[in-house]
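Standup notes, structure subgroup. Blocker cleared on the glutamic acid input:
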Amino acid sequence: MRAMTVKPIKTRFAPSPTGLLHLGNVRTALFSALLARSRGGQFLLRIEDTDAERSRPEFVQALLRDLRWLGLDWDEGFDAGGDAGPYAQSERGDLFAGYYRQLTEAGMAYPCFCSPAELERGRKRLRAQGKPPRYPGTCAHLSAEEAERRAAEGRQPTLRFRVPLGRTIRFEDGVRGPVSFRTDEIGDFVIRRSDGTPAFFFSNAIDDALMGVTDVVRGEDHIANTPRQLLLLEALGLSAPAYHHLPLVMGDDGAPLSKRNGSASVEELREGGYLPLAVLNHLARLGHRYESDELLDEEGLATGFDPERIGHSAARHDPQQLEHWQAEALRALDEAELLAYLDRFGVLEPVEPARRPALTALLRDNIVRAGDARVWVAAFSADPMPLEDAAREEVRSAGAEFFRAALAALDTAEDFPSLAKAVGQATERKGRKLFMPLRAALSGQTHGPELPRIWDYLGRARVDARLRKAMELAEQP
Ligand code: GLU
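Run returned:
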């Protein structure tokens, strides 16, 4: 049994609004939310918009919409309020200023006047010597007078954190287990850019502490940042969260997930007709194992979630799996939900409103996404009915005689089974040879819903009209 956690857990999602949410980064949001929900904790949303050039308000709006559409609601944070706001980092400059001061006064941070070109030259030199390209400490020991003189010349310094040498930083990663880094390999790093904005390491670590985040779930690409962040928190006397670094998501070609190998934005998925529950079930299994292979609802996804079930190797996004969960999620909709879903995509527009529920019930087993319904809407409500090539072939090869027999049988048939029986007797056909031409004539397709249900939906008059059309087609030379 797991020991009871005394402190309530708080996780967060901290996106930079520089693009749309896609399968890879929204999985991080989901795992953070699931970790909180699985332990009765809180989930927080923070917007990391310190990069003024790349951050855009429309991306903030898009990510709020995408998270809400997926049901990944947050208890605290941007657009939800809480005691630790503001929750957009661009509004937290004053708070950060106090911490820069604290570090500078303690001698743990210093201004650095090196230009980007100088830094690049330094890195090149180190690489040429086969050494890792760390900051060489050029400005680490400038006198206060020298620093003032340079500042007076109008040069805007960055602020660097002085990394203590000779130490090993260890932490227990929730996914990978024990991790350690030697501080000698880190090099003094920038915590405030020359334009005065905070560097990622800094604002991200401080805000996790100030917002009471207990558990950080994020991509493995951030693991090298963690020792830097632990050093900063230690220097400031702030408490550090537990870190869980998720293995990356790969495309089905084994390369990191990108547009080219199957990543899609949440917006594209929504517009493509995927249901939120399908996306959630797919993502929740990208690198995490559930005991159940069944479609889980939000609650089931949360209760079955356990960070110990997160795999150590890269997860692979298989688009077939997403299709599978979509089919399952669609099957789980009740009639009203399915109707509302199809309506949202406008696919039922050609159908008389009173007929929509019946049509929805008829086609539900034959669609995976809303767009798939179009062909059935056309098959059952368009006049004249479109005929697929294969269906046309079926009708012609059955021949006019077959449909004459069907029309004769229709006079006395009460339902589809009695019609099929009578046609079978009159034509001495059975099985596929009997049913396929009837299917082709009634729906214009060679697959689809069960024939008795098609009969029920169409009604005798339209069955009659369609058999007649088929007969005419078969009669043509
Ligand atoms: N803003 C960072 C990102 O989007 C957050 C990283 C983290 O979760 O700590 O990559």
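Discussed briefly. The CA atoms of residues 15 and 47 lie 6 Å apart.
Next: hand off to the docking folks.
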